[in-house]
Specification:
Layout lengths: L4 E4 L9 H17 L2 E4 L11 H14 L27 H13 L3 E4 L3 H13 L14 H6 L6 E4 L5 E6 L3 E6 L7 E3 L7 H11 L4 E5 L3 H13 L6 E5 L2 E2 L15 H6 L4 H10 L14 H7 L10 E2 L2 H14 L2 H14 L9 H11 L8 H6 L11 H8 L4 H13 L6 H15 L3 H13 L7 H8 L1 H17 L1
Parallel strand pairs: 1-2, 8-9, 10-11
Antiparallel strand pairs: 3-4, 4-7, 5-6
Helix pairs in contact: 1-10, 3-6, 6-7, 9-11, 12-13, 15-18, 16-17, 16-20, 17-19, 18-20
The protein binds one RNA strand of 78 nucleotides through helix 4, strand 6, helix 6, helix 7 and strand 11.
Length: about 475
Amino acid sequence: MSTVRCRIAPSPSGFLHIGTAKMALFNWLYARKTGGTFVLRLEDTDAERTDEAFVQAMCEGFKWLRVDWDEGPAFGEEGPRGDLGPYRQSERKALHQEAGLRLLAEGKAYRCFCSKEDLDAEREAAQKEKRHRKKCPCRLLDPAEGEQRKDEQHTVRFMVPEGHTEVADLVQGTVKTDNRELDDFVILKPNGDPIFHLAVVVDDALMQITHVIRGDDHLTNAARHVLLFDALGYERPQFAHLPMVLDDKGKKFSKRLHGANVLDWRDDGYLPEALINYVALLGWTPAEENRELFTIEELQAAFAPERWSKSAARFDRKKLDWLNGQHIRALEPAKLQARLVAILKGAGFDTAQKDDAWFATLTEVCQEKLSTLNQIVELSDFFFQEVTEYEEKPVKKQWQVEGAAELMTQLIACMEGVEDWNRDTLKAAYHALGEETGVGLGKMVHPTRLALTGKSIGPGLFELAELLGKETSLTRMRKGLEYIATL
RNA sequence: GGCCCCAUCGUCUAGGCUGGUCUAGGACACCGCCCUUUCACGGCGGCGACACGGGUUCAAAUCCCGUUGGGGCUACCA
């Protein structure tokens, strides 16, 4: 049994797109599931659109996603690896040309001297008259004549045979195409550069790719590729054309949209394992029914192409949020803590003033509440900066009422009386005060929260007060009391 | 225009191949209740779909045809 070899072949003409990431992920997961090899190949033949900066950007995307490859070119900071290289298409031109010329020599391709204008005119006429395009006259040219004129400007076209082409697709089933729909396509440009179709086929064959898993925008192209595989005497790989990723409106996920760049999700506080989990679910259903939450390792074990979906799916941010929250909750506290500290630091807060134990407590208190890592900022900013303003609504409800000042005064006294300051002692003190005065706990908690944080929502009050410390808490309470006097 | 692919709750989907067990199951979102100092988490419940039209059949979400809608290809881009 030959081992599985699959690949992702991105064109480094921008950042790592979410759609490319899906295809990479499916290939990668499939390779990992089967114990096969995952190859990265850069399709950088279009020099105008390729840029080393994009190579770096894409590498960052893959790295963050934790999608690693077994063979590939030097990519970003990664060194090259693999024996079937080079893995940059631009360095494989000679191989492509060799294949093209071989087809020419075998009479399976021909030199075409038609002008672009004539070709365009015929294409237009054919469309208007609702007929297939006429065969190019060069097709009938004596190969010897073509050989003679080879210094003239020309392209090399593949001679599509008559009949039908069938592509066996893992996802789409067998797709049959009338070869008349595929007119003799160009395989070598006038400057000798290969066209995409030739390059992929040659590279996939030479790199011994067994499974071509890619977007269904290539489904029609697959017929051309199969023809080329056959003509070149290469074994056809197994094809699987996956639906592309749609945005929330059901349109193709545009490059311009926020979230199109995989790193947007990193910057927005998402976990790579959550994104991977989500995207995998976007086109694959676990055999185990009613299960959605998977770690990367679990995904690698469960992933099966029998359950790949044929229909396109929209990207639903809300569901990703939920999954992200689930993954955050599943995270080891120490790991979560490290990520949260980094985010707070990045937000400009002086994290050095707190110690490790303090952050451990903060993490413990917030782990259940986060759906994205970045939410830690709004959840805990008041620990790092003074409360300078109070939310309007809770001020009205808690402070702009009869007896608010008296209550605050009582609460301050109550706090002052707490000797060993922590969540339990403070809570006990509040309970005691409540019993004494007959005021409900909620009536005391909310004004206190407002004074300590300026907000109406946040971590548990006693927990956050513990974290804030007695002194700071009291200072803020007194400040709140002063504020009440101005109302 | 031609050709190809797709079509179940708002969204992701199960079921379809091997019609009856589907008055269509789950998840997210939404709504309500419970838990609760807030928010979140968790628990319970609710709302909510087989695109449309024909056909085959005793019986169709499931099979066939058509229509509509969406996507793709139709390059000397990848």
